[in-house]
Every structure is written in structure tokens, then in C-alpha cells.
TrEMBL record:
It comes from Ananas comosus (Pineapple). This is Cyclin. It comes from the Eukaryota. One of its GO terms (molecular function) is protein kinase binding. The keyword Amino-acid biosynthesis does not apply. InterPro entries: Cyclin-like_sf (IPR036915), Cyclin_P/U (IPR012389), Cyclin_PHO80-like (IPR013922). Belongs to the cyclin family. Cyclin U/P subfamily. GO terms for biological process: cell division. The keyword Oxidoreductase does not apply. Keywords: Cell cycle, Cell division, Cyclin.
């Protein structure tokens, strides 16, 4: 975990790494959606609340950095938020992270992680302001997300460490010489102990 926290610019590396990973996944899913326009009209079930009508003007990286600056939560919360997002997607395989929903997924998964992990946290009204949404929407997204993960919020040390390993491999990738984009992302719970990689739900 230490490698994911150290950053000369005071933004933990986990924030940059997670934003890079999700940016790549969202771009890939955006391009897939363009090739299959009929998919846009398909029912989104649990993801309907997270889907925006337009792409937010703020980048994923800037959005996560904004959350970090104002939410004052521990770096471990970003790893746990990533785990929660992966659990949501595993339970709803028809849902894909794209540019229309990634921001709402992020603010909601971080909120859930902070409430579960940190001793002190801001209320939903504060997170709504940080996320650029209304309090009513923040409350609705939180409930929808919790039902979406089946209220499965506990994270064992083994699972936490396996997701840290994924993020560390992403850090190595980002620091390496530019290469063609890759799309590994998440682990299923069953595969976590062996650290096998799995693509974030497409």
C-alpha cells in the first residue's frame, strides 16, 4: 500500500492510478457503445440512476483529485471504493463503466468506502457538493449502490492486498515506456487469492 500513497505532489498515487485505469475502461466502453448504438436504449437496471444524459466536462482524474482534496478520506478508501465498484459490476454484468456514469459511480463508491472505513467522515450533503450533484441524488445513489453490492461491504486483508497488487501493476504500467493500451482491471472474489486479473465489466 505504501507505494500507492507516496506522491511528491501530495495526491496519493492510488488516486492517479485509479483514475488512469477507469479512464481507459470508460473510453473503451464508450467506443463499444458507439459501435452498438442500440445498446444505449437497453435497460440498465441498477445502473440507471448512475447514467447521466451528457458526459461531465471534468476529467476522471480531476474529479478524483477533487474528491481527495475536499473529502479528507484515507488513501485506503480509494482501494476499497475500487473493490466496491468491482463488486457492483460483478453482480450486474450487463452494466459497463463509461463516460456517462463513471463520475457518479466514483463519488458513491468513495462515500460508501469512507463510511465503512474511516472513523470520521462528512455527511451526504457535503459529498453531494464535492461531487457536483444534489443531496437528493446523492442519497438515492448511495441506496441504489448499497443494494447493488448486496450490502457486501466487508473487505478482508487478502482481498484488499490483491486489489493493491492490481493497482501496483497499473502503476508499473504507467511508469513504463508508452505501449499499446491494455485493459486488465479487476479480480473476482474467487480469484483474489491467486491474483489472477479480470477485465472490469464491459
Amino acid at each position: 500500500m505504501a507505494e500507492l500513497v507516496e506522491d511528491p505532489n501530495s495526491i496519493p498515487r492510488v488516486v492517479s492510478i485509479l483514475s488512469s485505469l477507469l479512464h481507459r475502461v470508460a473510453e473503451r466502453n464508450d467506443s463499444l457503445l458507439l459501435r452498438r448504438p442500440s445498446a444505449a436504449a437497453a435497460p440498465r437496471h441498477r445502473a440507471a440512476a448512475f447514467h447521466g444524459l451528457t458526459k461531465p466536462s471534468i476529467s476522471i482524474k480531476s474529479y478524483l483529485e477533487r474528491i481527495f482534496r475536499f473529502a479528507n478520506c484515507s488513501p485506503a478508501c480509494y482501494v476499497v471504493a475500487y473493490i466496491y465498484l468491482d463488486r457492483f459490476l460483478q453482480r450486474h454484468p450487463s452494466v459497463a463503466v463509461d463516460s456517462f456514469n463513471v463520475h457518479r459511480f466514483l463519488i458513491t463508491s468513495v462515500l460508501a468506502a469512507v463510511k465503512f472505513m474511516d472513523d470520521v467522515c462528512y455527511n451526504n450533503a457535503y459529498y453531494a457538493k464535492v461531487g457536483g450533484i444534489s443531496l437528493m441524488e446523492m442519497n438515492y445513489l448511495e441506496v441504489d449502490f448499497l443494494f447493488g453490492v448486496g450490502f457486501d461491504l466487508n473487505v478482508t486483508p487478502v482481498i484488499f492486498n490483491s486489489y493493491c497488487s492490481i493497482l501496483q501493476s497499473e502503476m508499473v504500467y504507467l511508469e513504463a515506456t508508452p505501449a499499446p493500451p491494455r485493459l486488465h482491471c479487476c479480480l473476482s472474489e474467487e480469484e483474489s487469492s491467486s491474483c489472477q486479473q479480470k477485465q472490469l465489466a464491459v
